[in-house]
Amino acid sequence: MVKEKLPSVNMMNTNLKVVVLGSENVGKTALSVRYLTKRFIGEYQSDTDSLYNASIELDDSPIQLQLLDCTEIAEIDDVLGRDQQLQWADAFIVVYDICNRDSFLSASKIIKSIRSVHSHTDSPILLIGNKLDLQHRRQTGFDEGHVMSLDQTCQFYELSAADGYHTVTHAFNSLFREAKVNKKALKINKFFKSNTEKRRNSFVAKIGDMFRR
Ligand SMILES: Nc1nc2c(ncn2[C@@H]2O[C@H](COP(=O)(O)OP(=O)(O)OP(=O)(O)O)[C@@H](O)[C@H]2O)c(=O)[nH]1
Ligand SMILES: [Mg+2]
Prior knowledge:
alpha/beta; 6 helices; 20% strand; binds guanosine-5'-triphosphate; binds magnesium ion; Small_GTP-bd; hydrolase
């Protein structure tokens, strides 16, 4: 009997592709730059999507991260128009501004679109309520974000890109950890599926031979 070889952990790809989505001015770029550089600059260019490539350490293992910071997503059609990016990604960060109610409603639509495009993979999603430093202008309660995250099975943090990098790093890393596990599970599934398929084909070929003889 020939033993099938399971893909070892080393053979598994540790590339992670992550897309950052949300409506205008919610802090998508501020959060991405905060995670990658630990800095908060204040004003950011926002007319084009930016793809950042970075080598990061996660739990002592290296990961090649591709972080795609998108320009605003205002309408649901904007999300569906980004079908290719949704297919490309292993995980998603969906941002809203706790002081902007509309951005929260958009976040909900964005998550639903991701789930409809990625229904077969259960892609990890991190929902972020940003600008927590502006609590006094809050238009969306913590509980509302929390309930949405439970409904949509995603991770949830309220935080502030302006207030320091620790919580941002913690939230992003928590998503990347889930994405890494998810990606490995998908690979193992694919491996078993393709081997089952190969075995079935070789069985069918053998039976075919027997009948032809
Ligand atoms: N007070 C406060 N301001 C923030 C925070 N995060 C971002 N900002 C500000 O909000 C504005 C928009 O931030 P961006 O990161 O450019 O937002 P964006 O979502 O990338 O915007 P677009 O790319 O135009 O869609 C900037 O003036 C930031 O300085 C935060 O946590 N607190
Ligand atoms: Mg931006």
